[in-house]
Design a protein that fits this description.
27 helices; 10-stranded mixed sheet; alpha+beta
Length: 748
């Protein structure tokens, strides 16, 4: 191992850059996985934090926050034999200044679940318009008992401050159940029921009795898997899914480093083979260097990752997402991935070193100079041939660099295309019926949580500027073989219904009828005339539609009233489409609507997604990923260009000796770096399109994904890649320009 470290120490700058590339990738895995783990832990603790023996929620609700259960059910369960106590809870997320995801729960002040919130200051809830704040939220918002705290424009007096040990809860608030029902328009409904039994050993029998009597509900014991676990698993895997791409780019950078190390030490390896070193010993030496690099980079990445997570935990907007997220298993997994990529990155260079013939290797001139091959000589005849010739002198290194940076660029391109496609699909949905304006509830962190009083739509319909109004209810359910089943509730008499072009059967006419999108019909194996269940309710399939948007064609349409009942939005809607008599006045009318109805936001259809928190969060995440790609890719590019300058010192010295000025040398090296990044951009676009296609093949959620490639997106990819070239080529270009000609000419 000492030989490996000595070899690495001989090229300190190259070793440092390669180590930083691996470290950045490992740090990315740590940070992204910490967020996923924190969210998963928070949701798991919330669902198992009370003293309940059983929890009852809507059976097909993907998450507890989307569940709706009638309070009457709780009253009937309380009468069942073996049940000691039943209490309901309402949960929701609102958007507040500085905190886009603020958790608010509603508990019965006399119920046993309120005991979970341990007071550290003030008094318990004792009346209406009172609120308990979590310790973290009270500190972030600078609130104390007696202060006024506003939720959805309504003022509540802070009665006390609590602590649970769960960051999501401690960064939120608790209202009395009735206040929460009013705030979330859940009159007569709760998100879930907590049940305490007289004899816990009878839990399984009572659970079976509940599910038999109410087949649309699901009862789970504490610690038992639930529908929400599917979302929890997605959160846990998301960090790894995103972070491994960063490590992959760093791993290919490591392969580049080891290839260069082997090339410049060809003569040395030949001597070792001549004095008796066997092939496996040479492989062990090169692999040892690669593993040492990855180990050092992995350990450094752990330090960076922990520091970044600690820094993020000081930001109020995200600290609730980092609940007990730094676990030893996370560190071990990140190191294993780093070492695995070190092994993969060093395998081919090690094999190549072992195959060197001793006599030919000893005659090699090493890495000091490289004779151009036929391809490189041919490139000199093309426009920009000097730059191409330099890149093609080491075609293997150029290919690996292009692939490594291309993967990073391609991944960002695929994610940006998915965001653009989702925006287009959502805009298409909201603009159905030729709506000029779309109205959504203000301060909601998720489009599915938007809830507007139906009377607002009717009042808008009466305004002289308004030609027509369409109402839409949007909700998420489940279906066999589909993790997410989107259901749209429409009034068949309004304009939105025309957007759903019926290909088989007919449109909605009667209650308990449903139209399926063509993807959904194929996945569920349903035809016109079949019967299916949604949220425990039976519907007859009367039509199969197609819109051209996978987002909609993988869902279903029911009547507005049916959707309101399914998703617990009695006399509420998710969105309102407004058709104007004078569309050119859309901006002025939108502002007037917001002033008249302060509980909503109104925007032109094409602009609404820019004001939605869902897409703001996506843009923030992808901005961070783009920065990460710039960091890792820039390090890889710098490493490659430093090696290119190093092996061409004699050539650069000769150019300087015959009169080339520093600026000309600097431009030459920068041009090579930018050309390499341009090739990487083209590769990245191809990789991004391929990834997009592969994502759509995922059986459970692939049908919901929409990708849109536009000239703006191609330009973004080019700017990203060229930024990598400029970032990575600047220092090597400066170094090349400042090489003293005499010393460079003497270099061997």
């Amino acid at each position: 191992m000492s030989i490996a470290f000595n070899n690495l120490w001989r090229r300190k700058l190259r070793t440092l850059l390669t180590t930083l590339g691996v470290a950045a990738g490992v740090a990315a895995v740590i940070v992204l996985s910490a967020f996923g783990e924190g969210l998963a832990n928070g949701f798991e603790r919330m669902s198992s934090s009370t003293a309940a023996d059983l929890t009852v929620q809507q059976g097909d609700a993907v998450m507890t926050i989307l569940s709706a259960v009638d309070e009457e059910v709780g009253q009937q369960i309380a009468q069942m034999s073996g049940v000691d106590d039943v209490t309901g809870t309402v949960v929701g997320i609102i958007q507040m200044e500085g905190s886009p995801y603020f958790f608010v729960a509603g508990h019965d002040p006399r119920g046993f679940t309120i005991e979970h919130f341990k007071l550290v200051a003030g008094q318990p809830l004792a009346g209406r318009r009172q609120v308990l704040l979590g310790k973290q939220s009270a500190a972030n918002l600078k609130k104390q008992p007696g202060d006024v705290f506003r939720i959805e424009g309504v003022g509540y007096r802070v009665a006390g401050i609590y602590e649970t040990g769960n960051n999501i809860e401690d960064s939120g608030a608790v209202l009395a159940l009735e206040d929460a029902q009013r705030a979330y328009a859940r009159r007569g409904q709760v998100s879930y029921l907590s049940i305490k039994l007289k004899d816990a050993s009878r839990a399984e029998a009572i659970k079976a009795a509940i599910e038999q009597r109410w087949p649309d509900l699901s009862a789970t014991r504490s610690g038992e898997p639930s529908r929400q676990d599917d979302v929890v698993r997605i959160y846990r895997s998301l960090g790894w899914f995103l972070g491994v791409f960063a490590i992959l780019v760093g791993g290919l950078g490591m392969m580049n480093t080891m290839l260069m190390s082997v090339l410049e030490r060809t003569r040395e390896i030949g001597v070792l083979r001549a004095v008796g070193w066997r092939r496996r010993r040479v492989i062990g030496m090169v692999l040892g260097e690669s593993l040492a690099l990855s180990l050092i980079g992995g350990l450094l990445g752990l330090v960076f990752g922990v520091a970044l997570v600690a820094l993020a935990a000081t930001v109020p907007a995200v600290q609730s997402m980092l609940d007990d997220s730094m676990r030893p298993a996370l560190f071990a997994q990140a190191l294993v991935v780093a070492l695995a990529l070190g092994a993969l990155g060093g395998l081919y260079p090690a094999w190549r070193a072992a195959q060197l013939a001793p006599v030919e290797a000893m005659r090699s001139e090493g890495g000091a100079s490289v004779r151009p091959g036929r391809l490189a000589r041919f490139a000199t005849r093309l426009p920009g041939g000097t730059v191409l010739r330099s890149l093609l002198r080491r075609p293997g290194r150029t290919l690996v660099t292009t692939a490594g940076i291309g993967i990073g660029v391609g991944f960002v391109v695929a994610l940006l295309a998915m965001t653009a496609g989702t925006k287009q699909a959502f805009t298409s949905l909201l603009s159905a019926g030729q709506a000029d304006l779309v109205v959504q509830q203000v301060n909601v962190s998720d489009a599915s949580l938007s809830s507007i009083d139906e009377r607002v739509a009717e009042q808008m319909r009466l305004l002289p500027e308004v030609a027509g109004v369409s109402k839409l209810v949007f909700g998420t359910s489940t279906a066999p073989g589909m993790a997410f089943f989107l259901v749209y509730g429409l009034d068949p008499r309004e304009g939105y219904i025309e957007h759903y072009r019926v290909r088989e059967g007919r449109a909605l006419q009667q209650p308990r009828e449903i139209m399926l999108g063509r993807f959904a019909a194929a996945s569920l194996k349903k035809q016109v005339g079949d019967v299916m269940r949604v949220s425990g309710q039976r519907f007859t399939v009367v039509g199969i539609y197609e819109t051209g948007q996978s987002y909609e064609d993988a869902g279903a349409v029911v009547s507005l009233k049916e959707a309101q009942r399914l998703f617990g939005k009695q006399r509420r809607v998710s969105f309102i489409g407004v058709t104007l008599r004078e569309p050119q006045r859309a901006d002025d009318i939108a502002r007037a609507l917001e002033q008249r109805f302060p509980e909503v936001i109104a925007s032109k259809t094409a602009n609404l997604t820019e004001r939605m928190q869902d897409f703001a969060s996506l843009n923030a995440m992808f901005g961070a990923l783009t920065t990460l790609t710039l960091l890792v890719g820039g390090i890889v590019m710098m490493n490659v260009m430093v090696m290119s300058v190093f092996e061409r010192r004699q050539e650069i010295g000769l150019l300087r000796a015959v009169g080339w000025r520093r600026m000309r040398v600097l431009r030459m090296v920068l041009a090579e770096s930018l050309a390499l990044s341009l090739f990487s951009a083209l590769a990245g676009l191809a990789i991004g399109i391929t990834l997009s296609w592969l994502f759509t093949l995922e059986p459970t959620t692939g049908a919901f994904l929409a990708f849109a490639y536009s000239p703006e997106l191609v330009l973004q990819a080019l700017v990203l890649a060229l930024s990598l070239g400029a970032l990575g080529g600047l220092y090597p270009a400066w170094r090349a320009a400042n090489l003293p000609p005499a010393e460079a000419l003497r270099y061997e």
